[in-house]
Amino acid sequence: MAFDVLKTGNVGVGGSTGAVLHRSLMRLTSLIGRSLAEVRLTQGIQHRETFQVSGFIEEAAAVAALDAATKGITLTVLPGEDGAAVEGDPQVLASVMQNLLQNAFKFTRSNSTVILRVLSNTERVRIEVEDECGGLPLQDTAELFRPFEQRGVDRTGLGLGLAFSRWAVEANNGTISTRNLPGKGCVFIVDLPRSSVAVLASRPLEHDPA
């Protein structure tokens, strides 16, 4: 309907109708990407490789930047050390990052900040998405990763993003958890084994053919 309204030429793409169309396209993109990744996981199909985390994070941030800007949110990226690498399916993990960032943008208050950062040591790499949603009312944050679980006022979406993220991270030998920041927000943490294989540079992700 938004596209039909724009075709009339009576409204501009930069207005509220264009924003509705943009949100719809972003949700469609997320649903398709997650669906493709989920099919690969359920069929045991993974394209595992060793890749550099800093380049992976920068690409995830570039994809998410437009969504953050349209919602009046500042996205701060701290990609960590250049040498940190992990072994996994970059397409599946990219879907996880898209889910976590969109979730952060969905619940973070306008004119605030979402932080995407990487922390690493000799054995582990942690990717964190910190938002300013005001904190979680849940005592047991593990409930957030149940399928169809939606605790916020905004019930758009299917409630499958965090459940998929858990399945995808565990399929890549990692864990995902949440840390509550009462009165401020929360942090979603993806913890992966660090690869001992040196990677000089990360290459762009190859997108699955539609």
How would you describe the overall organization of this protein?
The strands form two sheets. A five-stranded mixed beta sheet has the order 2-4-5-7-6. It has a two-stranded antiparallel sheet with strand order 1-3. The radius of gyration is 17 Å and the shape is globular. Helix 2 packs antiparallel against helix 4 (90-107). It is of the alpha+beta class and 210 residues long. The protein contains five helices and seven strands. 38% of the residues lie in helices and 21% in strands. It has a domain at 48-193: Heat Shock Protein 90 (2-Layer Sandwich). It starts with a helix and ends in a 17-residue tail after the last strand. Mean pLDDT is 78; it is low at 150-158 and 202-210.
